[in-house]
Amino acid sequence: MSVGATKIPVVVTEVVEVNSLIKRFRFVREDGGEMPGFSGGAHTVVEMDDGGTRRLNAYSLMSDPAERSGYEISVRRDDTGRGGSLFMHRHVKPGMRMLISPPVNLFGLDLRAKKHLLIAGGIGITPFIAQMAQLNALGARFELHYAARDRELGAYMTELSARYGDRVHRYYDVEGQAIDLPALLRGQPLGTHLYVCGPKGMIAWVLGTAGGMGWPKGALHSEEFLAPPVGQPFTAELAVSGITISVGAAQSLLEAIEAAGVEAPYLCRGGACGQCETRVLAAEGELLHHDHWLTDEQKAACGHIMPCVSRFKGARLVIER
Amino acid sequence: MSLDDYFHDETYFGDFTYRNSPQAIKRFPFPFPEDDYMYSVNMEPHVPGRKGSVFEHAFDVDEHYVAQMRDRARVLAEDPLRCQSLPHMTLAGWDLLELIMESFARDYPQWFELHKDGNRWHWINRPLGIDDKFTFLDESTLPYGPMEYITRQAQGDFTLQDQRNDNLWIEAGMVTTQADWSVDFDIGMNFHEWHAPVPLAREMGVFDRALKFLLQLQHGAPVRRFNWTMTVDPLLDTSPENYHKWGPSKTTMTRETIGRRQHLRVELQTLFRLPRSNAIAFPIRCYMISFQDLVTQPKWARRLHRVIRDLPEELATYKGFLRNRPLMVEYLSQFDDGKPTSPGWWPEDE
Predict the structure, then answer these.
(1) Confidence band (pLDDT; 50, 70, 90) for A274?
(2) The Cα angle at residue A12 between residues A9 and A16, in degrees rounded to 5
(3) Domain of A191?
(4) Are residues A124 and A218 in the same domain?
C-alpha cells in the first residue's frame, strides 16, 4: 500500500454458513495480539493466494469495533464473478493463515448527526452491523431499514431485531414489502444523516429521492464497492517502468501491473477511494471507466484512469506507472 | 539518575531560565536538509529513527517535560479557551488518550505505566506525580475531558481533525505552544480555511496535494514533517491572544544579545489516523534552540546562515522576522566559512 501500513498476519478461526449465499469469517492475529481498533463502516482488504493468482478483495468489517480480539466479515458468493468470493467460500477453512490490511474507512459516520438513518440492501448490511454497535455504545440515535429478497437471505435480521428492537425495520421483496422512502425521509428530524449501502440501483434510488427532496449533500453517505468487471483482454505500456503488460479477461489493470512486479498504490480496489488514480499518456482507443472517483469531465478528457476497475479497448494505451 | 536530576526546573516566560543541555543541543531537530528552503509537501513516514534522536519514539519525552507541562497549566489557568473540543470530537479525544498512554508506557516504562482490565484503566505518570484509575470511554471518571486530560501530560500542541465531505475540519485542540495561531479562532474551519494565511503555497498546489494525501492516511502508518519559525526569547506561548505582550520583544534585540535571545523554533508535526473516530490527530511539538547554542554545530551554523540570507521576502514576513533578518544574517555570517555542507541535517554527518 502506498502509505506504508503493514499487513496483519491472521489465522481464520471460524467459518460459518449464514445462509445459502453468505459465509462469515473470523480472523484473529497470528501473534495472539489485539487487532487495531476501527470505526464503523471500515473495510479490510483480504489477500488470497488462489492457485498462484493473487487476489485482493475489500470486505466491510462487521464485528463490534470495541471488540479487539478479532475481526469478522461476511462474503456473498458470486458465481459469475472473477473468483474472489468463490475462493473464500470454497477454500478458506478454520486454521488457515492469511494476510489482511489494517482497517480503512471510506464510509464513516458523521458523529455530528442528531440521528443516523441507515438503509441496507442485502449484503450491504455488513458495515451497518459495526456502525450500530458503535452508535449504541455512544448512546446515539439511529434507525435501520433493511431490505432483502426473502426471509432466508435476510442475513442477521433476527439477531439485529433481538439486539435493537423496534429500531430495526425489515422488508422482504418476495412478500411485496418495500421501503416507503418518501414517507420515511419526510418524517426525519432536522440534522438526520442518511447512509445507504446495497446494490447500485438501490443506492441511486435512495440518493436520488433524498436529493430531490432537498436533503443536503453533506448529509448523504453511500458505499458501493465495485467488483472489477470481466472484459476483453488488452495490453498496456507502463511508461515509467518501461514495460508492456497483458491484462487478462478476468484480471484488472491493477492486478496485471502488480503481477508484473510493479508497485502501484491502492486502498479500496473498488473504484471509490481515488488512491490508484493514474495518468494516461496516450490512448488510441476507448477508456472504459467503471469507477465513481473521476468526474464525468475527467472521464471524457481521457487523461486519467483508475486501474482497479477500469479497462481499455483499442490499439494502444500508455500510462504513467 | 533521579527524576529531579533529569527534568529541568525552568521557565518559558518572565526570567526565561529555559536551557538546552549539551545532549539536547546534539539531538535538536534541525529542519533544513539543504542550504535553501521552500515549501513542499515534505511528509515522510513517522517510523522510529536513530537512537537518541527526537524520532526514536512515536512521542518524544525530553528533559523539558515537567517544566513544559507546568507552563501549559499556567497558560490554561489564564485562558481556558486554549483548550476546546466540539461535542462530536470526544471519541477522537479517547482515541488520542489511548494512543499517548500506550506509547508512553511502551517507550518510557521507567516513567509511565498503563494497566488495563477491560475498560478499567490505571494510569501512572511518575514525573508529574499522577496515579489515576478511570473507565475508558466514560468521561465522568476523569477530572477533564479525555483530550484535555492527556494533553496536560504530553509536550506539544495537539489538534484533532474530523474527516467528512472529503475535507478535514479542525474541531478540537489543546494549543498553548503555538507559532502565532489560535484554536479559539480556527476551530470549525476546514483544511483550506485554516491554511489561507500561508503565502505562496496555495499557488504551488501544495494544499490540494497535502489534503488528498491526508484523507488517505492509514491507521498504523503515521507521517511527519517539519515547520519552523523564529522566536525572540524562549517563549512557548507565542499566541495571537498575547501578541501585545511578546510582539514588542522583536524590537529590543541587539548585536550583543542576539546569540542568547534569538531562537530557532522548530515544529515536529506528526499525523496519526485514529481508530474509533476515523479522525486525524495532529501533534505539533515545539523545540527551541538559541543561536549561540546552534552555532556550536558547524554544519548547522553554515546552513542556517545561507537559508536565512536567501529566504524569499514573503516568507520572512509571514514568519515574522523580516525586521531582524539583517541582524541575524550578520551574526550567523561569522560562523559561515563558505565550505560546502553535507546533505541531510544530522550534525555529525559532515
Answers:
(1) confident
(2) 150
(3) 115-223
(4) yes
